[in-house]
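Expect chain and fold; thus:
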Amino acid sequence: MATQVTATVNARRGSSFLRIAIALQTLTIFLQAVSAGLLLTSSYGQTLHSVGARVMYGASMLYVLAAVLAWKPGGGSPRPVWHASGFLVLASVQVVLGIAHVPSVHLPLGVLMFGLSVLALARR
């Protein structure tokens, strides 16, 4: 009985961590959109967008970690791990496109990523 209670508490804790990770990722993607606007209008926009890209990528890695931690102890569905991993792939493509200066794909992919992140957050 105590083991079952502990497993339930751990599952809730993992789920909360997952929700926080998705919220952080969504926020960092939104801030990337803001810094992209600053990139066009101010001298410090490029630095802000560059730093934000690193933070957003870190948030995507945190999302993967949170998904694994929420899935593994409780033995639930691995679906959040697949979603988080797919998101990390999208973030990797986004970084490569940004470095290569391909705005025709970089910008729409950023919008798609924000929408998917909001959707993931709404589902949690």
